[in-house]
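quick one, two chains, predict together pls
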Amino acid sequence: MNPFDAMQNLADLWNKGGKAYLTAQQGLFTGMADTMAKAAGLGDKASFQGFTPDTQGFEAARQDFAKLWSSASELSSALTRTLKADQANPQVAAVLAKIFDPRGWLGATNEVDQTLQRMAEGPQLADLWNTERKFIAVFNAWTAMRRHSLEHNKVVLEAWMKAAGAFAKLLNERADKGEALESWREVLALWVETANEVLLETQRSEAFLSTQRDLVKASSELRLAQQDLAEFYSEMFGYPTRTELDDVHRTVTELRRELRAFKRESRASRPAVESTNGAARPTPRRTAPISSRSKKRTRAAKAGASS
Amino acid sequence: MSEVSHAIRIKPEQAIAEAKALGEKIAKGAKLFEEIRDEDVAIATTPKDEVWRQDKVTLHRYRPVTEQTVKTPVLIVYGMVGRYTMADLQEDRSLVRNLLNRGVDLYVVDWGNPSRADRWLTLDDYIDGYLAECARFIRERHGLDKINLLGICEGGVFTTCYAALHPETVQTLVLTITPIDFHADAREERLGFGFINLWTRSLKPEDIDRLIEAYGNLPGEFMGSVFSMMTPMRTLTKYNLDLIEVMDDKKKLLNFLRMEKWIADRPHHPGEAAKQWLKDLYQDNKLVKGELELGGRKVDLKAITMPVLNVFAKDDHIIPPATTQALRLCVGSKTYQELPLPGGHVGVFVGGKAQGLLGPGIANWLAEHDRDAAPRHVQQ
């Protein structure tokens, strides 16, 4: 298989996936506004647009996901067929076919992650698929982050739905009591207060915390995969890599740490002659900490250098 | 849903009046926005001079404005999450000015703007390194054995640790909105309180490691978004309700914009120090357990034997009162006093009501516990 064709297929898949996710989320928010307006007994959904959830939105999202699933499956099949036709390296082809399976992207298992990890860290066949492997890692990390983002958004949207329900219930109760809200300010204040309470409760739920944790983790993994790819090209073109810069900064930090410790020791052993760097250079008046503590700190500084 | 529609009965004249008032407010606000310049919303304007510098850390001394009533100088230490400028937001909402006006000799340490290059700096470096150096500099400058420390939030943890490690150099310890028992939020169970504690505990230690590995530090924007999550509706309505509410009143609008300026100025937290902050403290609660190690030494809170004033906000959703009041049972000091104030985490510093309570409360307490101090003279 021509690697460029494979990358083109990947790019197409990526684009289609992104569009489908976008459409899904747009559908959610439109549906939210519609239902919120209905719940409040209002005809004008524009008043609540942007912060009102709806089950129809979820259905639209599901349908969009189905479309994504279908297109992704088609592309996956195409890629797998192409890869199988290319028998240059059946092992790599089989692994890639597995990665291209959308069930792996959207499933909750870590099988794909493990496969990727094996690919990234396991024995490699000379230079074969090195570049593609890094692109696939980025693509997979991006897909994982979008998936976790949608899962987290669903939890938040459910909270909005709950808030809308609570708001409608409060309005009903007021109507029963004959206590009508007489200004938009009052309506807004009641909505803000109600939604705030529901959102705060949601934030403490296991569903919210666990999906957000997954999202944070996925975000980190995506960035690390991007960095890995960037390092690959940096090395190729002779630019310093992030890893190399981190190494330099670590060395500088350790040297500064040792210098501070050395200065402290020096001050402790020469009570009458001290100096401070910086704007002011006062004449020292007395000696700072005892030498035994200073030695302890030197040891500690060295130990800390490895942290 | 017919009942729902019955619950909203907005009279046409009421709706027209509301729309008219809103229109006038926005028109006046737009004019004010046109007139306001960046210098109008300057923060931290109290005059001060840089007196010491090491790497990105600078130490400043505020210029005195009146006769000194507290003999021992006070070093203000803010944390890495946010910036010290909160203590000097504007002229009439400034802890710094309130203390200066009461004759307190003030220093403040500015940690600078840590970048990815500072990824490897640890809490040990900040507390046992830079902070210790600042304290040493002030002591030598004034010919004193001890100085007063005033810690704010994470800076309160820094000063607490420093005081425990070097008690012989601390005259008094003043803490404000400082977490000590990072798990005590669970005891309060107030909705919306202690979310950062809960959120951090929901992460796995390796998630934090990966986050730091990916970004090199704890990005300021990231922590900003976590803070925003704590007040979800406030965050959503800040610009389309709160701002509109104040935009036709120049004084209130400037207050709002200065606060925005402070919020936007959120430095990155150096990576290794952030790992310690989130894992050792928020997750493992090592400080209150006596298990935190800095510079190879255990931080023993019982070693804090100097007088302690612990100031907290009764409605602090970021540092719930129980998390800071835990200090009472941990310190070795015979003089431990609490000063609970009305307001929230930031409001206790910048709120109108707090101005008459926070500064005077701290200044009076310092004067009361500063009787034994006797400075020789100040090196200029």
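Residues 36 and 164 of chain A are 6 Å apart (CA to CA).
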